[in-house]
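--- STAGE predict ---
source: upstream dedup step, 1 unique chain passed
mode: sequence only
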Amino acid sequence: MRLDDQRESSNFQDDTGRGGMGFGGGGFGGGGMGLIFSLIASRFGIVGILIFALGYCALTSLGGGGGGLLPGSQVSSSAPAGHSTLDPTTRHFVLSVLGSTEDTWSKLFAAKGQQYQPTELVAYSGQDQSGCGAAQSAMGPFYCPTDRKIYLDTSFFKELSQRFQAPGDFAMAYVIAHEVGHHVQDMQGLLDRAHNAQARASDTEGNAIQVAIELQADCYAGVWAANARDAKGQLLEPGDVEEGLRAADAIGDDTLQRESQGRVMPDKFTHGASAQRIAALRKGLTTGDPAQCTNLGGESAG
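--- STAGE serialize ---
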């Protein structure tokens, strides 16, 4: 990607120097990661497909947007100051991509007479606290609708490149743009609507609703990339699209299930099969139109 002239976003919080501190007393005990994983397991029957799954969303683990804190968790209003451990190059990349999503979605919203309100990205190392409860690197990147922030342990980029064999700057940008896509959905009221629909649905139906939400976020990531420009033109370069599609293929539910348990259970999908994620991202890339990002998983996300 060509990001040299792209402005950096100021909607950023660097928690990498906290070292897992500042959890307001309880830490992970009595409502941290153990509770998150137990909630996932009871709701979806499998944890492995969510660990390191691109776009791990608080909507998945907490049962919907705006659901408040996990029982026993607390948000710390002030954490001990520390020195950032975020690599400067990675920081610049993250903030440049985030700035590009802000510019792009602002234009897309303005075209419809609406105003885009940017999300804030929180970078952390190891573990942190979000408005949706505890955050840990094993959860992968996620969007919390309670505080409308994205949480990202940037070590995920290394995991994406090495474990999932999906290297490249656009593959990393796809991670960020997907989570921004969840924020766009939140602004549109789609996360609340999905949460309400899931409350009336069976487990299998609820999973299908979740898949539609995740595929739409993939499509929105493609919409951003198709429209991302600066004064010199489009930010995408030759090979970028292939990087993104390779990443979408690597983190499909069927691929992750096959890797973690040796078999595929479609009724347990929560993010979409590899082919679905590729198709959703490609649709956004080819149309550049967010209105086209519906009915991607057999269920409408909108």
